[in-house]
Amino acid sequence: MVNALPGRSADQNKGKSISQAFISQGADVIFPVAGGTGIGSAAYAQSSKKAVVIWVDTDGCESAAQYCPVFLSTVFKDVKGSVQKAVEDDAKGQFSSQDYIGTLSNGGTGLSPYHDFASKVPQQLQNELKDIQQKIVSGQITITSKAQPK
To answer: How far apart are CA 2 and CA 10, in angstroms?
Structure first.
């Protein structure tokens, strides 16, 4: 897993070298939370044919379509939807200055489609992931983190 700070770097060569190191250690899935550095990770995964990538923020097959063949999925943030809702709420005079936190419940985050991997991700696993998501939304599974908003 590549775990760099988002927005801190756009060094694609760094993404390639970090991914190369992880793949040489046996990684077969890379999760580059690293802004532009992630493009280097995707490029290396594609050229090496030894790993796949879980993209972040926007559906990778839309935002970096040239690497869609290596994008297993994307952990997305629905920035477009949240901005649209804020604008619509403001137009109705219902704008709230409260913080917006994207969750599985409100569709503010989730997994994008598997695109090229749809037939390769076993249906049982897809069902398990949907079940886990529903359990998180219902509160049956509680997620806690020191970094989560209070």
So the answer is: 14
